[in-house]
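Quick one: C-alpha cells for this chain, please?
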Amino acid sequence: MRYKPGHKEEKRKELLKTSGSVVKKSGFAATGVDGLMQAAGVTSGTFYSHFGSKTDLLKALVESELQASSEMWAGNPCGTAEEWIDFELGRYLNMGHVRHPEAGCVLPSLAAEIARADLSVRELCEQELLKGQQILAKRVGSDDLAWALICQLVGAIMMARTMPSEALQRTILDASKRFLKDAVSQLTAGKADT
C-alpha cells in the first residue's frame, strides 16, 4: 500500500502526541512500548519503524514537548513584562493543568524520569529548555528570574498534584502566582529606578 508524501512524518507526530499524553499521565518508565502503541491504535512494529528504542521515543517526546512550550511563550501576545507574566501564569498555574497532566507541560510529569535518563536525553532537555529560558529572560529582563520562573511554575504544579485537597491545590497555585507577580514587579520597578 502506498502512502501519500509526508505520511510517515504525520504518523510520527501522531505517535508522539498520543505517547506524550499517556506518559505524562502514567509515567514513562511505567509504560511499555506495547501500552503506548495500543493507546495509539497501532502495533509495536509501527513503533520500531519510527523510533529505534524507548530512549529514542523519550528524546523525541522531550524535544517535541519543550519546543511546543517555547512556541507558546514566544507567541504570547502581551507587551509588558507584567501583562506577559499574568497571561502565562493564568495559562500554566491553573486547576486544569493540575487535574490533567496528559494535556499539560512535560516537566512536572517527567522531570524526575528525565533526570534519571541517559546523558543524551538530559542534554537534549537542556538544549530545548535553554531556548525557552531565553524567551522568558528576554520578556522579564533577567536570566536569573527566567530560571526562577521555570522552576517555580514546574514545582507549583508538581506540589499541587501531590495534594489530595483541591483547596490546598488552589492555595499552592495562588501563592505561586502572587510570588511570581511580585518578583517580576520588583525587578521591573528596580530597573525603572536606575
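The chain has a mean pLDDT of 90.
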